[in-house]
Design brief:
five-stranded antiparallel beta sheet, alpha/beta, 33 helices, binds magnesium ion, eight-stranded mixed barrel, binds ligand C2E
């Protein structure tokens, strides 16, 4: 308590006793009056202080003691000293019984003394006592009671404001109306009782009764109001608690409600129960199987907790438990929802949820982006009229039929009108056996579809020219042929091949070759009718399918147009201008023909056209072309391709000197690495190559390769010579000499390391011409050999006339060495004669050690034999030579 308050109390005491003294003296001494009355009134005052009438307002309670009523009685019936004494004794006693703090008791007593004294002073000033109760005295007593009330209220307000408990204003005016009424009531009671007691002195004991009745009535009234207030408070608290959702908010609402309902300053929700005997009230709060304690503390000591308070707190705790239970469920749900949102937010797929009526309830960010709609706009919007319509109808189907839609392809719309293809998965949500909604997930598959389309395009089109490829062509051809068998229509296939394409590729580079093909494709495209098929069939081959062409004339007319279109000069990217041409074969297809046959016929016709020159077309003529066996034609076509595809390779068979056993040379022998049939020997294709003239490019190739290989061996310290076979066509070629010179110059091989072989039969065909040609070749510095000697019109005499360096004895002689004495004699003679003529003999086909021994015995200087080494690849021979060198 502040010092000023203590000073104030002291002032009250002094003022009280001063006024009391003054009143007492003005009344002529200290008489106590009727002792029985004094006793009864003191008991009443004490009782009213012990059991005051409690009046509750929102935040506080006020105690009323009906002092003014007792004041009127004492003012009228007792001398002033008696009145003051009665009040002092009664209130002091009550304070002691209630064990009030000493300072509070002193204040109360001084306050009573001051109020009583001022009231008495006022009453006596208005109407001094006359030994009887007059109307004026009744009025004066009433005014005195008023003064008592005012002084009492004022002194209390001053003290309360000094201790900081409340403001003067609220201490004076809070509940003023009720206090005023109580003042009126108790004063009236006092006045009536005083009159009654004056006239009927023995009624003193029963004077207690109206006061008790008055107290009980008022108490009951205030209690009822209080209870009603509490009920209302509980109701409001329930509303407040139930209207909050988060656990923390519910706890706050609980604390606030409990504090205001029970007027406790300190409310807590604790894990442990407060210790027994503490001046608090605690009730359990059951939440999710755990007990916590709702504890109210800090209520005014004058107002201890009662059973009604506990019931109230328990009711609040029950509401709180339920609300906390709900809020923890709510929070769990919210966390669940947040988790769901977090998951769906990270998805690239659009995810939407619908309620049982097909209304949109959720949309993830991916769905918003894909549809161009925000979730807030979409929820509750008119789905039927918006871009959500396809989604809603899918969801409704799921809801209606319980249908699970999995990766269904459809089209969705984007805000703004654009559409995009999607894959949709939609499933109903079933809870407690009933469909309660649907979830729909979708992904934009435009990119995937584009990729698929591109993949499909690549599978059926040529990447370079973007024309349909072989697969598509064959498919359309087969389809056309099938329909021909129904309709009787005639179709035509044109097989076009670029002339000398390999030359373009080799001389100008692959890039130029590609450009040429693209240019040809572009020139052909506009010439082809819609509905016909132009395809790149392979490397430099284009095929055209003309459906329902009518007759061969139309196909030939088209071929003419194509040839003309391609013939125009072509300008390459780098500015170079080239001339190109096609050779075209045409074949007709009618019902019953199969696709392979038609293509084969067109291919054969194309080769016929090529045979005749470049830039020509040829229609397949079954009669004319039937003269040559179909197999032969196929082989020719295949060989032509083999040359282009570089399937022809060169193997080398060592030629060994018999005296030293060293490899002194190797014969170049051509091989065909057939993609299907494996390595083919020359016997399978040389005759055909000779007939078709293909031997010329083949021979040239072998010559080039052999020379550059020999050069390589020389450079690597393995200087051996190479022998290359010349075919009759090559031999008769007028510019053979020039070709050989070019190759030697290009490869840098020393001429004497090259040996050219011609067969004996060829040499003998036209001896003079042979001599002439051989002299020309000899002039180049190369060596010459007669191959397969002994198989033709063998004449050693002629040999002498040829500028020959080597005689290659045919293997038929060598193989007969063991059995035929004639052959043995011939071999021996050839070896000797050749030596005499300055030539070297090479024995071919030595297969056994005996044969070798005999040949050595006969002085044969060189052998080429399976016994020593079979023909092998350049790499194998390189390895062998290295081994020899090392050895
Ligand atoms: P050729 O010029 O008389 O070549 C020798 C042939 O005899 C080769 O057969 C060779 O493998 C084989 N030979 C070598 N030693 C033996 C042996 O001990 N036993 C047996 N049974 N055979 C042996 P290939 O390679 O099959 O060649 C056959 C013919 O094809 C050649 O006979 C040649 O006339 C011709 N030829 C090969 N390559 C070319 C070429 O590039 N151009 C031309 N125009 N003709 C070639
Ligand atoms: Mg040969
Ligand atoms: Mg031979």
């Amino acid at each position: 308590m502040p010092l000023t308050a203590k000073v104030c109390i002291l002032a009250y005491i002094l003022a009280g006793f001063a006024v009391a003294g003054f009143v007492g003296m003005s009344n002529g001494g200290l008489g106590f009056g009727r002792p029985e009355l004094l006793l009864i009134l003191s008991a009443l005052v004490c009782a009213s202080w012990l059991r005051p009438i409690m009046m509750f307002s929102d935040g506080s309670s006020q105690a009323h003691h009906m002092d003014e009523g007792f004041f009127v009685l004492m003012c009228l019936l007792l001398p002033p000293a008696g009145a003051v004494m009665a009040f002092v004794v009664a209130t002091s006693l009550a304070q002691m019984i209630r064990r009030r703090a000493a300072v509070k008791s002193i204040f109360n007593v001084s306050q009573i003394v001051l109020s009583t004294s001022c009231g008495l002073l006022a009453a006596r000033l208005i109407a001094p006592p006359r030994g009887d109760i007059t109307l004026a005295q009744l009025g004066a007593a009433a005014v005195g009671a008023g003064v008592y009330f005012v002084v009492n209220s004022l002194s209390l307000a001053v003290i309360l404001s000094m201790t900081g408990s409340s403001s003067i204003r609220s201490a004076l005016f809070d509940g003023l109306e009720v206090r005023g009424r109580m003042l009126g009531g108790s004063v009236s009671l006092g006045l009536v009782s005083a009159v009654a007691l004056r006239d009927v002195p023995f009624s003193a004991p029963i004077i207690v009764l109206p006061f008790i009745a008055f107290r009980q009535a008022l108490s009951g009234h205030f209690q009822a109001r209080h209870d009603r207030g509490r009920l209302l408070g509980l109701f409001e608290a329930t509303l407040a608690v139930n209207h909050t959702m988060g656990t923390k908010d519910v706890e706050d609402a609980l604390r606030t409600s409990a504090a205001s309902l029970l007027r406790g300053r300190d409310v807590s929700i604790a894990r442990t129960e407060p210790p027994k005997g503490a001046p608090v009230m605690a009730v359990p709060l059951e939440v999710a199987g755990r007990t916590r304690w709702l504890t109210v503390n800090g209520r005014n000591r004058s107002e201890p907790f009662d059973a009604a308070d506990r019931a109230l707190l328990e009711a609040l705790a029950a509401t709180g438990s339920a609300a906390l239970e709900n809020s923890s469920l709510y929070e769990e749900r919210r966390r669940e929802e947040e988790r769901l949102v977090a998951i769906t937010s990270s998805l690239d797929e659009g995810v939407c949820a619908f309620d049982f009526a097909g209304r949109l309830t959720f949309m993830n960010p991916a769905a918003e982006e894909l549809l161009g709609v925000r979730e807030e706009e979409a929820i509750g919007s008119d789905a039927e009229a918006s871009e959500l319509e396809p989604l809603t109808s899918a969801a409704l189907r799921s809801l209606r039929d319980g249908e699970h839609m999995k990766d269904a392809r459809t089209v969705f719309g984007r805000r703004g009108g654009a559409t995009f293809p999607v894959e949709v998965t939609c499933s109903p949500i079933v809870s407690e056996g009933a469909v309660s909604g649907a979830v729909l997930a979708f992904r934009d598959i435009s990119e995937r579809l584009a990729a698929e389309a591109q993949l499909e395009f690549h599978a059926f089109h040529d990447a370079l020219t973007t024309l349909p490829n072989r697969t598509i062509f064959l498919d359309r051809l087969q389809h056309a042929l099938r329909s021909a068998s129904r309709t009787g229509e005639t179709h035509a296939v044109l097989f076009a091949d670029v002339d000398r394409f390999k030359l373009t590729n080799d001389s100008l580079g692959h890039h130029a070759g590609d450009e040429l093909l693209v240019c040809i494709a572009n020139r052909l495209r506009p010439i082809i009718r819609e509905g016909d098929t132009l395809a790149r069939f392979g490397g430099d081959e284009f095929t055209i399918l003309l459906e329902n062409v009518g007759g061969v004339e139309a196909a030939e007319a088209l071929a003419t147009r194509i040839l003309e279109a391609v013939r125009r000069p072509i300008t390459l990217d780098d500015g170079r201008i080239i001339l190109a041409s096609l050779s075209i074969g045409i074949a007709l297809a009618t019902a019953g023909t199969n696709a392979d046959d038609v293509l084969h016929d067109a291919d054969v016709a194309m080769y016929q056209a090529k045979h005749r020159g470049t830039g020509l077309y040829q229609t397949f003529d079954a009669v004319a072309m039937g003269n040559r066996s179909a197999e032969w034609l196929d082989l020719e076509i295949a060989l032509r391709r083999a040359i282009e595809n570089e399937e022809l390779t060169v193997h080398y068979q060592p030629i060994v000197a018999t005296d030293s056993g060293r490899i002194v040379g190797a014969e170049a022998l051509v091989r065909w690495e057939h993609p299907k049939r494996g390595t083919l020997p020359p016997s399978d294709f040389i005759a055909l190559a000779e007939e078709t003239g293909l031997i010329l490019p083949i021979g040239r190739r072998v010559l080039e390769q052999a020379c550059s290989q020999a050069k390589e061996w020389s450079e690597n310290g393995m200087p051996i010579s190479v022998a290359v076979n010349l075919s009759p066509r090559q031999f008769q070629q007028h510019d053979l000499g020039r070709d050989v010179r070019t190759v030697l110059a290009d490869t840098g091989l020393a001429p004497n390391q090259l040996c050219l072989e011609i067969t004996e039969s060829l040499a003998m065909a036209d001896i003079d011409r042979t001599i002439h040609l051989l002299v020309d070749l000899k002039y180049l510095g190369v060596r010459l050999a007669i191959d397969d000697f002994g198989t033709g019109y063998s004449s050693l005499n002629y040999l002498k006339r040829f500028p020959i360096d080597i005689v290659k004895l045919d293997r038929s002689f060598v193989q007969e060495l063991d059995v035929s004495t004639v052959d043995t004699a011939i071999v021996s003679a050839v070896v000797n004669l050749a030596e005499a003529a300055g030539m070297t003999t090479v024995a071919e086909g030595v297969e056994t050690p005996e044969q070798l021994a005999r040949l050595i015995g006969m002085g044969c200087p060189m052998v080429q034999s399976y016994h020593l080494a079979k023909p092998m690849t350049a790499e194998a021979l390189t390895a062998l030579l290295s081994k020899y060198r090392a050895g």
